[in-house]
Amino acid sequence: MSKHELVYLTEDASHDAVIELINAEAFGPGRHTRAAARIREQGPHDRSISYICADDGETIASVRMTPVLAGGVKGHMLGPLAVRPSHKNMGIGRELVRIAIAAAKRKGSEAVILIGDPPYYMPLGFEKVAYAALDFPGPVDMNRVLVVPLAADTHERLKGKICWRQCEEAVVVEEAVTERLLAAG
Prior knowledge:
This protein is an alpha+beta fold. The chain has helices spanning 16-27, 35-40, 92-106, 118-121, 154-157, 165-184; strands at residues 6-10, 51-55, 58-70, 73-83, 111-115, 127-128, 134-135, 145-149, 160-164. The chain has 6 helices and 9 strands; from the N terminus they run βααβββαβαβββαβα.
């Protein structure tokens, strides 16, 4: 058995190409049509809480965190999470999830949400979201929508549209500007 020198690092722009390769390897060409990808294409992920795992200097896994507004919850969407086939079943994915959740909590996130396999993610602290509570920008198997609640009453507030967080904040700013213009005018 070979010895592995695993190091977990915060993602930076130099990792983009290899992360794309790892995700293509794990999820194939259809990955861009999924509802989670539709949310991710609305705005950038948060590199400060997205991570890679390197083995002897080679990037072999990654997890990304995208800021989202999910109903009344300011959270992060976890994913994609992918590990190269040569390093599967070594606990790397689970460790990346643990690191990402801890970072989201430190950053003040109210929840970490994902669309994934319940038998894999529920032992890592994820819970099922109420069926059809969130409105995704595309078809989703609602039984695979999971959350790690990081704030009080998270489940109660997870109702409504889910999108990249700044898209909703921009709407609030735009509405405030419109109100000021109408009041002045």
